Amino acid sequence: MTGPVPAVPTAHRPSSDAVPPQSDPRPLSAQRVIPLRHPGRWLLTVVVVVLVAQFVHGLATNPFYQWHRFAYWFARPVIIRGLWITLQVTALSAVLGLAGGILLALGRLSRSPILRAVCWTYVWLFRSVPLIVVLLILYNFGALYSNLSLGVPFGPAFVHVGESALATDLVVATVGLSLSEAAYASEVVRAGLLSVDQGQHEAAAALGLPKRYQFTRIVLPQALRAIVPAYVNQLIGLIKGTSLVFYVSLLDLFGEVQSMGSTYPGDVVPLLLVATTWYVILTSVVSVAQYYVERYYSRGALRTVPPTPLQRLRSSIRNLRNLRNRIEIGAVTG
Amino acid sequence: MTAVEVHGVHKWYGTHRVLDGVDLTVQPGQVAVVLGPSGSGKSTLLRTINHLERPDIGHVSVNGELIGVRRHGERLKELSEQVILAQRRRIGFVFQNFNLFPHLSVVENVVAAPVATGLTSAAEARRVALALLERVGLGDKADAYPRQLSGGQQQRVAIARALALQPGVILFDEPTSALDPELVGEVLAVIRDLAGGGTTLIVVTHEIGFAREVADLVVFLDGGRIVEQGTPAQVLDNPQHPRTREFLSKVL
Predict the structure, then answer these.
(1) Average model confidence (pLDDT) for chain A?
(2) Domain-embedded: residue A47
(3) What distance in Å separates the CA atoms of residue A123 and residue A160, rounded to the nearest whole number?
(4) Both ends of chain A: CA-CA distance in Å?
(5) Which of A111, A195, A200, A207 to mutate against chain B (most B CBs within 10 Å)?
(6) Does the residue B82 lie in any domain?
(7) Which residues from chain A sit within 8 angstroms of residue B162, using beta carbons?
(8) Which domain range does residue B114 map to?
(9) How much is the pTM?
């Protein structure tokens, strides 16, 4: 595919350069540059391909994995039931955690020193305590506070709720995850809000835009560009973090796998592979969604929005077709 | 009634005194140009007029209305943010760095304020916005995003955005200082077009030529004080104060 080797002017040649090199009548400036070769890169590629092939071969042929048991368990109702719990807990605590995170972030950016201190303390506390400890404390909450009531602080109560009636396992798990998630989310949101240029706040204020509008339509959309990647990271951590709810006797995906594993000890490995596969599927879905959400919030930040993978596929097919056409035309005319 | 009145305004940033008792009166329809070395308090003065900065002492009124404060017996009390936002809608402000909203298209930038504040319907706001963009020579850029425009074009969009609220007073904070020299002219042309149109303009700038040509009032600020003010002929051609003379000799 390379063109003829360009002749390089040497020292003994007259410097006028008017004399074209003997091998090629074209001047140097009209010739293609020969690209640098990378033999080391090729060698490394071959080594890596061989290693990957070995690993895949092992996955397929090692009887230890018991792929037929994997197929048996993969979509069992008991596993799907666990998956459903995982999805519910994840979705609820992602939404509640983000909402709490936004409130905490606004509190930390507020002008009231008390609000700032309270929000800072919350974040400090919940980032310091392991999630499993938070969950277990909540699980034993009934011993600490036997009933919850709503009313005047230190005064009469209007609403009384027995704590045990409220605290189903799902509620305990969701509340625990949301409390901890809010602490982390608040830092992500705060970082996003701080990343918005001060000039944007000033422009919004100078135009007299209502306070709410300034936040929801001017500042937040720009902050989201920085928030989305970091929050998706957080969300993926949350999806896997839900596996801890097993310890407050909620049978999520991991919980079902664990309990099936103790009933059928021979199937432990295929069951763990089932859990692995489902978690991989969940995070993949989130990652794909992330790509499109990020693309949406990059409006205006980039001069041209990058194509979606689908558009990229289509354009590469189009290019291939054009190339083939050109080759065919070349064959005919040549 | 005067368009803008600044009364004894003092402003400190910590212990640093930025404004040191500024008094300024601008009549309706006048173009006032504020000159001065950097750090002389020009921008701060402009920003106290629409209450982006709160004067520590003194007060500002626009078209006879106190800005950011109200009279409470013998004292001035700060207004709620909501009321201040409403006051700012009557005072346009154009920034040195444009500060267009990058995630909104050009026309969305212009309609944002009239629509958000319920001034007009979305359709009417869009019609007005397109007319304004036409007026600043950007009728064909309505659906572009700010980053796709040159600095001069962005600043003209920012002017259209300020005009969309039909303010009686427009404040320009060094509107051409962030622009390449060849783009300065197109922005000044738009401002010149506004001058004499009945709108009161206060322009902080380093463009002496523009001041000479367009200004009714030239104000020279130094060390947070107004050192000299008058017509362009008085201040630019026959400056009385040594600081003014020194400054002009450097920039001319």
Answers:
(1) 86
(2) no
(3) 29
(4) 17
(5) A207
(6) no
(7) 207
(8) 100-166
(9) 0.80
Residue A37 lies in a domain: no
Question: What gap in Å lies between CA B202 and CA B4, rounded to an integer?
Answer: 9
B8: in domain: no
A188, part of any domain: yes
Domain contains B133: yes
Per-residue pLDDT of A25-66, as tens digits, reads: 778 888 888 889 999 999 999 999 999 999 999 988 888 888
User: Could you read off the pLDDT of B193-223 as tens digits, one per residue?
Assistant: 999 788 999 999 999 999 999 999 999 999 9
Joined together, the tokens standing for residue B61 give 């009124």
**Eight-class DSSP state of A248:** G
What is the span of the domain harbouring residue A164?
62-299
Long-range pairs for B182-185: beta carbons < 8 A, 24 or more residues apart = B183/B150, B183/B151, B183/B152, B184/B152
Domain for residue A334, yes or no? no
Least-confidence region, from A185-189, A247-251, A327-331, B74-78 = A327-331
Number of domains in chain B: 1
CB of B68 within 8 A of CB of B79? yes
Tokens of A40: 């080391």
CA distance A207 to chain B (A): 6
Which CATH number does the domain housing residue A189 bear?
Answer: 1.10.3720.10
Report the candidate in B88, B108, B99 with the shortest Cα–Cα distance to residue B168.
B88
Q: Strand runs (DSSP E) across chain B, as ranges?
A: 4-13, 16-26, 31-35, 57-62, 65-66, 69-72, 75-78, 91-94, 169-173, 200-204, 217-222, 225-230
Find chain A residues with C-beta within 8 A of B104's C-beta.
300
The percentage of residues in chain A with a pLDDT greater than 70, rounded to a whole number, is: 82
DSSP class per residue in B2-39: -SEEEEEEEEEETTEEEEEEEEEEE-TT-EEEEE--TT
Query: A144-158, A252-266, A274-288, B71-85: lowest mean pLDDT where?
Result: A144-158
Smallest Cα distance from A300 to chain B, Å: 5
User: Is B65 within the bounds of a domain?
Assistant: no
Taking the C-alpha atoms of residue B85 and residue A210, their distance in angstroms, rounded to an integer, is 7
pLDDT confidence of B109, banded at 50, 70, 90? very high
- CB proximity B82 to A under 8 Å: yes
Domain count, chain A: 1
Q: Which tokens go with A63? A: 């009887």
